[in-house]
Amino acid sequence: MTAPSQPILDEPTRSFVQRCLSAGLVEINDIKKVVVSLQAEGSAFTAKRLAEGLIGAGLLTHWQANKLLAGKSKGFYLGSYRLLRPLGKGGMGVVYLGEHHVMKRLMALKIMPPESVADKRRADRFREEARASAQLDHPNIVRAYDFAEAGGKLYIVMEYIDGIDLQAAVRRDGVMSVPLALDAIRQATCGLAHAHDRGVIHRDIKPSNLMLRTDGVVKVSDMGLARVSWMGIDEQSTNNRLLGTADFVAPEQAINSKSVDARADIYSLGCTLYYLLTGQAPFSGNTIAQRLAKHQTAAPPDVRSIHPDCPNAVAELVMRMMAKRPEDRPKSAAELL
């Protein structure tokens, strides 16, 4: 009597296949094609090897495969979007790359965690971010297209930027040349001028919130802390909490974030220009309190002390943008242009 043949897939691999199907990420016929291909290669069948084959065939992303290998079979879809991978974290949530299941268009989905949705103040603030973003339509601002709720999660559908933020760019490539840094700041200023004209103050301008697309276009992102003049945003509960980022926040914003105007964004943009040219924040300190104190009292640092070849006019521009008193800075982003 002939012994029964051994199954091609062992139990862990069959469980992995079942999770792929249950998650709605892969069709059984596609899995069979990958199995046949792996058989032709003489590869040993394990869940990990099959996952690698599905990734190679473009059927799974690395993030999806790792989640499936870890035993997950849910959380791969949100509304009309298939989640491909995390892109990063914003002021109010995690951002994922998503693909519309019909249109196949790639979008960035900013998702508010379910535990935060129960907090009415935070949920209202997230909705206000969506409303503020929807009012802005400019080539140098990340566009927002939709706001929705699914599976107990609130999310904003935004333009996907194929690139990296300016902080990551400097860490990867080193400090920018003066022309490149000025061009990046000019583009960001164009976007801010559009926002300011519509009553939107960003309040969290920094290198990591300026996205550099692969074609060189710079876009302002993350309106999570924006102050909108025509919205009745309740910020009473933020009185004792810093709104902004300590390395780039304007002196007056650290004291009272509710009363700031466009000149606070200009100060933060000056700090950002300093970072692009030197690779470091303007003020050092072991604690947030120490850095905030320097924003309040220390003279703006001279770029030329680190970047001796920086033209005098550019160094003076940085110091003017970082003036302690708002009235000593350029009055608006439009004036800065």
Question: Could you outline the blueprint of secondary structure elements for this entry?
Answer:
Blueprint: H1 11-23, H2 28-41, H3 47-56, H4 62-69, E1 77-78, E2 81-89, E3 94-100, E4 106-112, H5 114-117, H6 120-134, E5 144-150, E6 153-159, E7 163-165, H7 166-173, H8 178-197, E8 200-201, E9 210-213, E10 218-220, E11 227-228, H9 251-255, H10 262-278, H11 288-297, H12 312-321, H13 333-336
Describe the structure.
It is built from 13 helices and eleven strands. With 337 residues, it is an alpha+beta fold. The protein folds into three domains: 11-69, no CATH class; 77-159, Phosphorylase Kinase, domain 1; 163-336, Orthogonal Bundle (Transferase(Phosphotransferase), domain 1), CATH 1.10.510. Strands 1-2-3-4-6-5 form a six-stranded antiparallel beta sheet. The protein has a three-stranded antiparallel beta sheet with strand order 7-9-10. It has a two-stranded antiparallel ribbon with strand order 8-11. The radius of gyration is 24 Å and the shape is elongated.
What form results from the Cα inertia axes? elongated
Rg, nearest Å:
24 Å
Mean pLDDT: 90
Question: What is the fourth-level CATH superfamily of the largest domain?
Answer: Transferase(Phosphotransferase) domain 1
Q: Strand sequence of the main sheet, in spatial order? A: 1-2-3-4-6-5
Structural class: alpha+beta
Q: Spans of 5+ residues with little confidence (pLDDT < 50)?
A: 1-5, 235-239
Strand content: 15-25%
By CATH reckoning, the class of the largest domain would read Mainly Alpha
Number of helices: 13
Outline the biggest β-sheet: 6 strands, antiparallel
Order of H and E elements:
HHHHEEEEHHEEEHHEEEEHHHHH
CATH fold node name of the largest domain: Transferase(Phosphotransferase), domain 1
How many domains comprise the coordinates? 3
Could you say what the CATH architecture of the largest domain is?
Orthogonal Bundle
Counted beta strands: 11
Helix proportion range: 40-55%
Q: N-to-C terminal Cα separation, in Å?
A: 87 Å
Protein name: Serine/threonine protein kinase
Domain Protein kinase: 81-337
Enzyme class: transferase
GO molecular function: ATP binding; protein serine/threonine kinase activity
